[in-house]
Specification:
- By secondary structure, this protein is α/β, with parallel strands linked by helices.
- It folds into 3 domains: about 110 residues, no CATH class; about 90 residues, Rossmann fold, CATH 3.40.50; about 60 residues, no CATH class.
- The protein contains 5 helices and 17 strands.
- The chain has a 5-stranded mixed beta sheet.
- A hairpin with a 5-residue loop joins strand 7 and strand 8.
- Helix 3 packs across helix 5.
- The radius of gyration is 27 Å and the shape is elongated.
- It starts with 8 loop residues before the first strand and ends with a helix.
Length: about 280
């Protein structure tokens, strides 16, 4: 957890003890700026972080009550040149210390804090390879760096070329050129290029959509090695991001599956990851 703007966070030097009782008594009836939602409290080399509930109107409001987010034993205060509005930079700094909460006075003297999750939230990523590395896993890793949660991605990769050199068909056809799939001892074709067929002894590697396209192009249904990712999820309790050719844009949720287009872009995966965390 991290406030998305430092304008809601104020640094306050105090003289009262940074215990729950000391904080509640010390802040009772005090005034804070109307835009302030959190206080980073400093007493000597000790730090605590609290959320404030205010009452009244005007530029400064009276503190009605406080919620203690962290006490000194679980909080570290750092002076750094990081951008405290950057989730990626704050997460990186938080990962470098053992404390549950890191409060930072960073670039331009701005102050913010980051609260680690008690345990990382696990999210599955199911994708096909080649190409390597997995596009979906790579996009998810990038997106996770900019989300203020501690996330453990669990990629499961399906190698669509596995065993193809041993199939009886002379020719293997993939949906697209993708990772430049090569199969030793086989002629390789790509469905999206609508090639002329040298014969009918073909194994189509793809989902039902690929089969429908093939039948529309060539007028018959070939032997097919299926790799529909939606049908191969093993752990249905784990929120999992998969891709599907039937999804044209955005994200579709089916239970704990968060389904993005086959040609997903960064924003699709970022949205899916956020939905998985909010489920």
């Amino acid at each position: 957890m991290m406030p998305l703007h430092c304008r809601v966070v104020a640094l306050k030097e105090v003289s009262f003890p940074l215990t729950e009782e000391g904080i509640r008594e010390g802040l009772a009836g005090s005034k804070v700026y109307s835009g302030t939602e959190y206080l980073v409290l400093r007493k000597s080399d000790e730090t605590a972080v609290v959320e404030v509930v205010k009452e009244g109107e005007g530029l400064f409001n009276r503190v009605a009550c406080v919620k203690v987010i962290s006490l000194p034993e679980e909080t570290v205060f750092l002076e750094s040149d990081v951008d405290v509005l950057s989730v990626r930079e704050m997460k990186g700094l938080a990962a470098s210390v053992d404390a549950r909460v890191v409060a930072v006075r960073g670039r331009f003297y701005h102050v913010n804090f980051y609260v680690k999750d008690p345990a990382p939230v696990e999210v599955g990523i199911l994708d096909t390879v080649p190409p390597y590395p997995s596009k979906l896993a790579t996009l998810a890793e990038e997106a996770a760096r900019d989300i203020p949660r501690d996330i453990l991605l669990k990629p499961e990769l399906v190698d669509i070329t596995e065993g193809l050199s041993r199939v009886p068909q002379k020719t293997v056809m993939f949906p697209c050129r993708g990772g430049g799939n090569l199969v030793p001892g086989k002629e390789v074709l790509y469905l999206d290029e609508a090639p002329e067929l040298p014969h009918r002894d073909i194994l189509l590697v793809g989902c039902r959509t690929s089969e429908e396209i093939f039948n529309d192009l060539y007028g018959f249904v070939p032997e097919r090695k299926d790799f529909c990712l939606r049908d191969t999820v093993k752990d249905k309790s784990l929120p999992t991001i998969v891709k599907c050719s039937k999804v044209k844009e955005g994200v579709i949720r089916e239970g704990n599956l968060f389904i993005v287009p086959w040609g997903a872009v960064a924003e699709d995966v970022r949205s899916a990851l956020k939905m998985a965390l909010e489920r």
